[in-house]
Amino acid sequence: MRLTSGVYSCAVLAISLGHAHANPARNEMLGAFAGHCFSPYLTPARVKSEIASTGARVDFYDLNPFSDVAPTPGTAITPGTDRRCEVTFDGRHGDAAAEVATSALQAEGITAGTPVPATHANAALPGTTLLAARALNPTRIAVVHTGTRPGPNGVETFLSVERLTPQASEASR
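The chain above was modelled as a monomer; its predicted structure follows.
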């Protein structure tokens, strides 16, 4: 049984960040990634209302949507991908980001590991806390990447999921 995104976000945060002293804004941004970025039906309108509204910075494109919305172009498209949802915010919270992303994958039933494809082989950078590939289905792979890096206001935390095209997924197997 799949959880709805709102209930799911609360469950992930309760499990992963159950500290009473945790930063509520940070938790909301992490929860927005967990609750929405893995949905194949995420749209630009939902990105704005459900993720960007938390104060997080978002990089989103979907060149081949699963729903009847128009494709969403991107400015920096990773070769071999047709969708990206990346959430960033100020601060050094890479370990929490990896924990939330891992919990979100498990909650969505995305657990079949596969090697990180060549398109992402050099993606790990200092501050990476998670770089993993998961089989979405027999023709699709997703790459999840979390960590910290230099941002516009100092160190930022990032959580990213990119969906490979069927051709790139097949080439990486």
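Residues 94-107 form the longest helix (14 residues).
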